[in-house]
Write the structure tokens for this entry.
Amino acid sequence: MPGPPPPPTTATSVSPSVLPPAGTAAPTADLASGYDKPPENILDVLHAPSPPQAHVNPTHDTILLVAWQDYPPMTRVATPFLRLAGVRIEPRNHSRHDTAGGYGITPCATDYTLVRVADGAQAHVTLPADGCPGRPLWSADGKRFAFQNIAPDAVELWLGDAISGEAHRVPGVRLNPMLGSTVQWMADQRTLLVKTVPDGLGAPPPAPIVPSGPSIQETGGEKGQSSTYETRDTLTSKHDEELFDHYVASQLALVDAATGTVTPAGKPGAFDEVDAAPDGQHILVATIHRPYSYVTTYDRFARDVDVWDRSGAVLHRVASLPLADRVPVHGVPVGPRDFAWRATEPATLVWAEALDGGDWNVKVPARDKVMLHKAPFAGTPAETTRTEQRFSGFMWGEQPGTELLREDNENRHWMRTFVMNVDDPRTRPRLLWDHSTDEHYKDPGSPVYRELPNGAWVIQQSGDTIYLSGGGSSPEGDRPFLDRLDLGTQKSERLFRSDKAAYDWFLAFTGPDTRAFMTWHQSPMDPPNAFLRTVGAAVPGAPAGEAAYSSTTRAITRTPAACAAPSASSPGHGSSGLRISIAQSISLPKRSRQPIRSSVKPFAGPGATPIAPVRPPSRSAAIAFQTTSDSYPMRSGLCSSSTSKRSRPQRSRLCSVAMRR
């Protein structure tokens, strides 16, 4: 039997040669459009809003619930964009047409709802109509939040009030998110440092009708490595270089959150990383300059790294780094790299330098040295330590003399963590953890942070005790946990572990009392919601790995289920995580009428803290996912980065939650 005829190109003009056989239905408008859709009852389930993510403010008294768009319209997906040195840019408004991971398009928030932790009172935030709001960025005092909004002709800066829920656009600010570091709070928590599109930028350079000459690429004749994945969206012509210069140009500015006053800082430039120091008086600025490369992305372009004051005056040249287009696979560029501010001092820079030429194949006793340089940056930088493997970063303790240093071996997928005192070189670092990054069952978790009043993030401490939150991978599925670890004895005890029949993830402590904390709870029967959990008495004879203390809970949020009634089937568990049953029974043909079930691992959506191992997002995963709290660092100055398997240096695993917008 011949197959069905192809759909007509329009709904109103059908050629006799492609008329459907007698007795069949006439083509519908949807079919005529070229897109075939499932029945409405299935679409209702797919378009049902996904549960929100919880963003706890730094003072832990308010939760901002953010719901995200699952399926962007084709008009957004099909928006024209440029491929410039590893970044995809929409020319009409300078917005990104990709994500930090390099895949998909920028996600849009569909709802903001503020929830007061004390009594669960809610306030809805009115978001900009016909826009694409992004992830919220809390101020350290918990009074305000900022977010970017992609409008048709610009990327806007919006500010919201944590009490009233009122949000407004800051007039006269057109953000430039091309290379990140777009918006950050300064130390006073009343001022924002932003990257903007320079006034008078003008139209982009037009494509030449006739090429000005041949495309010439020079080589120094030296041997080197260049991975094929580095060529994604690289520059290909002189015109591409001109377009890159045009769209990367930014003007740094300080925005008063109370008055909306915008004060430019310095002159426009091709700024990559921009990071304000904890004292609020110094700004680390990396400025890209020519020559560019056609074989690697902007991360490896030549740059000058400077320290500015708030007015934009250059106080100190930290480094001038050449083009690094021949970095060994899994290696790092030579010279200073991974610049960051020390979180526990006003303005002390930290960076690493390779001792092996950035090449894993070179046999050396130490691969990296770690340097410190304190403002006003006079004299010679001090070497604080050397690492046997590649330096991954510091995690700064709340109390002096407590720092966690991590180094990793990318080839072995191995990581080691040491406890050390940066200020006392006489004390040897003590090994804390030594494990494979692939062995999730033995993952000790990540330290719980708290944000200082100046916006710097530090590990929360009670004497020598720190707290660890982890995904809890196990043969029974992922069972997140909260541990208390004594750094002196290196012994830990489990305060909380998610029940086998549910999925509870630590959000944040409610305050100085670490016996009370918030979790994000979900199960096959319950939609995701925030709960207040209070630790009680010790549990005699608690099995190994289980919580050593009892606890009680109280609901904070009451997010309704996206669908009507849960499936009656029992949840299953496996190494891939918790099996979630979609709650709605869809009306299917009689022979197949049954609930639809999907086995998914809860995952981190836009801006959320990933659970290791992270699974690729899917529609099923949107039914239930892990959320985050803003009790984890969102400032890039927390720790340094290491070179990942991707085409450009990125934050290491320990710093994956430290990425700032």
About this structure: The longest strand covers residues 529-538. Helices lie at 29-32, 40-46, 74-77, 238-248.
